[in-house]
Amino acid sequence: MPRSIVSDRDTRFLSYFWKTLWCKLGTKLLFSTTCHPQTDGQTEVVNRTLGTLLRAIISKNLKSWEECLPFVEFAYNRSVHSTTGFSPFEIVYGFNPLTPMDLLSLPMSERLNLNGKKKAEYVRTLHEKVRTNIEKKIQQYTRQANKGNKKVTFEPGDCVWMHLRK
């Protein structure tokens, strides 16, 4: 059971039934910020990717998607993402889980056990690398998005056009 679920404030998740269910299961329901398309965009990308992976695996047997979901989730969490340069699993736990294919060629010298201090230091440096990779990717996206935009500075008293949402 997940400890928390992030929702886009969909009314289906706001009903009394769901609130009671989450409470009984010990799951905390978190909401994304209103009018914050970045959060929805991230969710949409993950959902689209998982949907593509599921379609590739289940082929024409549409009723088997539920059985395949844990394997698709594992594959997604173990794959290296372009923004961070690491897999989600490695970011959270500090290592990628081994698969049976990994165990075939693993020499005994590679099967080492890091002590707690070394492991904590490794995870700390890993998170620093992830943060650096994300910042680089953000700068790359920003440069691409701002290509051709003019820098405009406003002074107090300048007339500007404003659009206010309801």
TrEMBL record:
One of its GO terms (molecular function) is nucleic acid binding. GO terms for biological process: DNA integration. Residues 1-96 form the Integrase catalytic domain. InterPro entries: Integrase_cat-core, RNaseH-like_sf, RNaseH_sf. Transmembrane segments: none annotated. PANTHER family: RNA-DIRECTED DNA POLYMERASE (PTHR35046:SF9), ZINC KNUCKLE (CCHC-TYPE) FAMILY PROTEIN (PTHR35046). This is Integrase catalytic domain-containing protein.
